[in-house]
Amino acid sequence: MTDEKRENKMEEKKTERTEVTVIQQMTQQDANLAGNVHGGTIMKLIDNTAGIVAIRHARKNAVTASIDRLDFHHPVLVGDLLKVMASVNYVGRTSMEIGVRVESENMLTGDSRHTASAYLSFVALDEHSRPSEIPPLIPETETDIRRHNQAKERRKLRMQERKCEKSGDCG
Questions:
Q1: Is the residue at 158 inside a domain?
Q2: Each residue of 6-56: pLDDT tens digit?
Q3: Please, where are the H alpha helices in the chain?
């Protein structure tokens, strides 16, 4: 294989190679006066973790294009460990959907709760900050395939919504 062909061939990546987990203890700096961690603090950790996943998959700069449904299920308190788990669910030509699950753990009791979930879309960029082609994703497990199919449906809905917004005919 010539160098040119090697450069143009994108290496497919398995979902497990995209997974990242970030764990951080929440402090008073992260919370309001009642001791509840700010949603914005959690949102930033979600975006940072998803960004790591996107860049590792694309092996180039990637930026957040959208966040779908960031749902908070339980509060996070000062002292809790926050575990942010993310992986690629779906890959298009230049964009990808990253699924993120957040859990909080009370270190004294060991109780762990599903705290939040989100889907983020990222676009890979070339050296001129233009959208750039990225490697395809190979979903292998039943869970990977289910997430991939669900992400495909969400992508269809996002494209329909975008078309509707541009035309102004959402009626």
A1: yes
A2: 344 567 777 777 899 999 999 999 999 999 999 999 999 999 999 999 999
A3: 3-8, 39-58, 142-167
